[in-house]
Amino acid sequence: MSSTDTKVTGRAKGGIQRAINASPERLSEIGRLGAEIKKLPRATHGAADKPLVIGDIEITCYVLEDGRRVLAQRGLQQGIGLSQGGGHTGARRIAEFLARLEKKGILIKDLIARANSPIRFVPPHGGNPADGYDATILPDICAAIIAADQSGALDKRLKRVAERAAILQHGFATIGIIALVDEVTGYQEVRPQDALQAYLEKIISKELAAWVKKFPDEFYENIYKLRGWPWPGMSKNRYSVVGTYTRDLVFERLAPGLLPELERRLPKDEKGNRVAKLHQHLTQDIGDPMLAQHMHTLVMFQRVALQNGYGWARFVKMVDAAMPKRGNTLELPLTEV
């Protein structure tokens, strides 16, 4: 039988028939969509049947060819406990939920902008493009939810959302979202064996960066207000204990193993001083944005605490719940503590 006599059956036959019947406009649209898909980043690791699992929460996640870890949009929405109702789904549903929190005093304008800008990508199996978010958005959303709950801004029907946020943050406290995504996608199989050191090298610069102001004045002013101390302004020397607070609130919570590595690279001299600030060893591409995002979240919690008349102890409790101190390893725990 010649190739021209070969019978086409099944889905292939249906596809050919649809192509024959398609209008020129439809064919043009198909071609345009195909061209757009070719430009999208493709996921190399991850699958819908291998989700990220924390407690009873499941979120589909992927690693893109450029190394970005992403959480599927629908999985993120379901993971934080947002219903599919209300007529809106996806990015709009998440952004509208965050906008409601902002109206109740939770200052998260940047987070809302990120929710409105999902990442479009092609799943590993191909097919239609999917929408997702950089994995680091999830801890930030959880922090905003926990802050809203602790300030009394959530009504009873959203208590379940706060409970799920707490479950997720507990998972992040031990292993970190990057390690979680690498584990469930299988990316750790091709990741360098010195994962922790490689991770730290992305955060810490090999050469000292030029000093720039990375800690907003408001951060220190709010510490004084929460402690009930008179604020003397930035021109006066701060109480020495403020340095201890900064280590606790920032460097011990920014990334696993970060503080001891920074201290190793910047040892104290005989007088107990360092030749440079710890944050000057953070890289501009990874470390600085992480610090900026962390400081933004801390100041947000400070504002919420001050607006609600909370003192220092209540503020620290809020931070402990949403941004717990990091360990010195990225390894996944074998048992839940």
TrEMBL record:
Residues 200-291 form the Bacteriophage Mx8 p63 C-terminal domain. It comes from the Bacteria. InterPro entries: Phage_Mx8_p63_C. Pfam families: P63C (PF10546). This is Bacteriophage Mx8 p63 C-terminal domain-containing protein.
